[in-house]
Amino acid sequence: TPCDASDRTALQHLLDTIPTEHPLTTVIHTAGVAENTPLAELDLPRMEAVLRPKALAATLLHELTQDLGLGAFVLFSSGAAAWGGSRQPSYAAANAHLDALAEHRHARGLPATSLAWAPWSEAGMAADETVSDYYRRRGMRPLATDLAIASLQYALDHGDTTVAVADIDWERFPAGFTAQRPSPLLSGLAAAASPGAGADPEDTAAMSDSLRQRLATGTPAQQHQLLLHHVRTHAAAILGHPTVDTVPPAQPFQELGFDSLTAVEFGQRLSAGTGVDLPPTLVFDHPTPKELADFLRERLVEGELTSEGHLLSELDRWDAVCKPSAVDEAARRRITGRLRLLLAKWNDTERDTERSAAHGELETATAEDIFDLISDEFGKS
Ligand SMILES: NC(=O)c1ccc[n+]([C@@H]2O[C@H](COP(=O)([O-])OP(=O)(O)OC[C@H]3O[C@@H](n4cnc5c(N)ncnc54)[C@H](OP(=O)(O)O)[C@@H]3O)[C@@H](O)[C@H]2O)c1
User: Fold this and answer.
1) CB-based contacts of 243: which residues, under 8 Å, 6+ apart?
2) What is the pLDDT of residues 113-169, one digit of tens each?
3) 162 in helix, strand or coil?
4) How far is the centre of ligand 1, averaged over its atoms, from the C-alpha of 32 (Å)?
5) Is 152 in the pocket of ligand 1 (CB under 6 A)?
6) Which fold has domain 8-169?
7) Where are the domains of the chain?
8) pLDDT tens per residue across span 164-195
9) What is the pLDDT of residues 312-325, one digit of tens each?
10) Whose CA is nearest to atom 44 of ligand 1?
11) Which of 66, 166, 189, 378 has a CB 3.0–4.6 Å from the CB of 118, allowing a cystine?
């Protein structure tokens, strides 16, 4: 019989219609209204519309049946309460109330099982291709009905009070879920499952070292191909595509289906894989896999080759092997000439820098500054 379960009188009437020869043995509360409202836009009527059929109706069912000697009292809660959900502020609170009600009943020796479901795939409020895709991309595979029913049976058989039932893709879920802030719920698991934010620093270092080693021995064209493949592999993995062929080098990331969440996850993975700190705006600044590979090559190869550390270590290497006495005098003269040219190149750069600094100073200098400068350069006359 249809009844507004948040109306105490209507609910009492409904319970009164149950014949004594067939007493009520089980209550399964499944009433609910979905929500898609950001917290900032929430108002009392919207909040009430979501809280009434869940929190209020479940509380009324508890109060009106607590003396009936039930065998089972089942509540359909949600992952929104167990691990959270965006645009579900009242829905998360309402479901958290169900979990708390189950604990309350359990503490009083009454039967109670609250199941926090991940989205179901085949029926109900989340059974929609767009919604399923949204969750799948975030690492939560929509639940198959037989798996969900088997989980319900399992929880009842084992007398569980609060259970979360979800089919999680552990490759994806932790990285997206912890993209904006760490999650105490997942902190241990994220480190184990994701090569992104929570990755073990040693694994991350090993990954980027191996890429750097392969880059160090390649030609520029090979370096580009290697990085392009790296970018396409991670992009395909994040988008849930089985092969890199679905990520053409010249196709913009946004056309491939990247959004801000996947972009953050992508940036984290590439940072971990390359050892370079990359911004979350990466796919917007370098909009195609090819452009991103060029940028990474610039940062990883060219940046590395021209760094002070690298240049000094090359000099050390040269210094260690070079013995002037090991070559004849003519060779020594040629090598000395070459070294003078190198030194002149460095001195020229040094002088250019000083000149442009002096030029800058002259443009803003007072007459007094100019006299000081002349006397510094040429000595007092
Ligand atoms: N489907 C999922 O993926 C999923 C995931 C997590 C949790 N859950 C929870 O599981 C439960 C069932 O979900 P569902 O997918 O079957 O939802 P659904 O298809 O939207 O059905 C919700 C049902 O609740 C009833 N209802 C709403 N307000 C009511 C009220 N005041 N009194 C009595 N009945 C009321 C609706 O009846 P009317 O049609 O007459 O309005 C409807 O039959 C809900 O509590 C939901 O929050 C579902």
Assistant:
1) 236
2) 999 999 999 999 989 888 888 888 888 999 999 889 999 999 999 999 999 999 988
3) strand
4) 4
5) no
6) Rossmann fold (3.40.50)
7) 8-169, 201-308, 322-378
8) 999 988 877 877 776 666 677 776 554 444 44
9) 877 888 888 888 89
10) 32
11) 166
